[in-house]
Amino acid sequence: MADVSHSHKEDLATHPDVPEMRARYDRVLGGRDVALVDGPVFLVGLFCAISPWVLHFTSSQPSLVVHNVIMGIALGLLALGFTVMPGRMYGLSWAMCAMGVWLIISPWVVGSSPDNGVIITNVIIGGLTVLLGLVCTAAAARAALKSRRART
């Protein structure tokens, strides 16, 4: 029978596989510097998608309704991608900045004489998207710099 007593426990820090385990965890979690941004990006996308019904502009701005739903779904998919494949997806965080700028100007480009509520909502959603995109972009740049330093 195996001895499972805890009387001769070794300190895990002295285990020979510790450096390899740390390197593996760093690789797996390398892109998770902005893990707390994934949720807000998803919520901004969700609100963008439901905003036509929240603000009741489904009948007055039909083209902007379709636009906001598509942009909201795209932001939600980006957030999901950031959660599932952070190392690969944070390279696309600059696209989120571009989406935010587009959301800011879209009431005038896509809509037809939008009212103040629609304009303010899209400007806020776009501003938050740009801000979150900049945070993701900065974190991705910081992670890339950290990995370059680790290689040298």
What are the salient characteristics of this protein?
152 residues; single chain; 0% strand; mainly alpha; 6 helices
Task: Tell me about this structure.
It is built from 6 helices and no strands. With 152 residues, the chain is mostly helical.
What would you call the structural class?
mainly alpha
Distance N terminus to C terminus? 48 Å
The amount of beta strand, in percent, is under 5%
**Chain-averaged pLDDT:** 83
Fraction in helix: over 70%
Give the SSE string.
HHHHHH
Number of helices: 6
- Main sheet specs: none
Number of strands: 0
Q: Low-confidence segments, ≥5 residues, pLDDT <50?
A: none
Radius of gyration: 22 Å
Label the overall shape.
Answer: elongated
